[in-house]
Specification:
The protein is α/β, with parallel strands linked by helices. The protein has 9 helices and 12 strands. The protein has 2 domains: 135 residues, HUPs (Rossmann fold), CATH 3.40.50; 144 residues, Rossmann fold, CATH 3.40.50. Belongs to the universal stress protein A family.
């Protein structure tokens, strides 16, 4: 039994776009939808909601209106709401652990603007044990039109990208979409070559054929598991972030892996995921490594 599709909401346009995205995905996957709203008491709020009980009533009324709208749009969808006072990060991380995926809103591009770079969104992405999908306020169902692909980044050995590939193929199968698997490569310093690596490159016929072979090997088990999903193999020289963004215009969803790196100032999700989250126009799924 799979978990629900979960959306974190806070009343903003971005979170409502994420909720709409999550509802459509739940319908496609024949899954339940869970709406999570964690709130904190604001002692300096307006006079009509100045006390704790009034604020909680206001929050629950707002979520109730959202639930009513969902029922009108998707009458057959099973929807539950979880509203409670508490830390948003802890609430969303806990909700993600029980979910198939967690959808959150993201305000837009740039180094300063956006829920994505706020403490809540960043910490949830860093800590969530399940895929987190970031959705912008302008996202519409039309962005999922036929012909638009699920774009997924692949790197390293097959096992390094297996969770991201699995998520991409599962999503494509649910949507009747194709997958564009992207592997970027760069020329390494000549001194990085070992005799063993030189032998492998020579057997593969050079660097680019070697990269194409590596991508094909990573995709093979997923092609076999999802034979009806069309696949395009995209191998290009360049930085992974730049290559992924160069094909973002084709995408209805971008999928990138995440292996968090802990530092003295907190977790870092990696430069590729960071760049794609900032600049891709489509929703972006960040998938943690198993």
């Amino acid at each position: 039994m799979t978990g629900p599709i979960t959306a974190g909401v806070d009343g903003t346009d971005e979170s409502l776009a994420a909720l709409a995205w999550a509802a459509r995905e739940a319908v496609r996957r024949d899954a339940a939808l869970r709406v999570v709203h964690a709130w904190r008491f604001q002692p300096n709020a307006a006079a009509d909601v100045a006390d704790r009980e009034a604020q909680e009533r206001w929050v629950r009324d707002a979520v109730g209106r959202t639930m009513a709208t969902l029922a009108e749009r998707h009458p057959a969808l099973s929807v539950t709401a979880d509203v409670h006072e508490g830390d948003p990060v802890e609430s969303l991380v806990a909700a993600a652990a029980e979910a198939e995926l967690l959808a959150l809103g993201s305000r837009g591009h740039g180094a300063v603007v956006g829920f994505l770079l706020g403490s809540v969104g960043r910490q949830v992405i860093d800590r969530a044990a399940r895929p987190v999908v970031l959705v912008r306020a302008g996202d519409r169902a039309s962005s999922e039109a036929a012909g638009r692909e699920i774009v997924v980044g692949q790197h390293g050995e097959p096992e390094d990208s297996a969770p991201a590939l699995r998520f991409a193929f599962e999503t494509a199968a649910a949507r009747g979409a194709g997958v564009r698997a992207v592997r970027a490569w760069t020329l390494p310093p000549v001194f990085a070559y070992s005799p063993a690596s030189l032998k492998l490159l020579d057997e593969a016929g050079g660097l680019e054929p070697y990269e194409k072979k590596a991508l094909a090997e990573a995709l093979q088990p997923w092609r076999e598991r999802f034979p009806d999903v069309p696949v395009v193999q995209h191998v290009e020289m360049g930085s992974a972030g730049q290559v992924l963004l160069s094909v973002a215009g084709r995408a209805q969803l971008m999928v990138v892996g995440r292996r968090a790196h802990r530092t003295a100032v907190g977790a870092r999700i990696g430069s590729v995921a960071h760049g794609v989250l900032h600049h891709a126009d489509c929703p972006v799924a960040v998938v943690p490594h198993d």
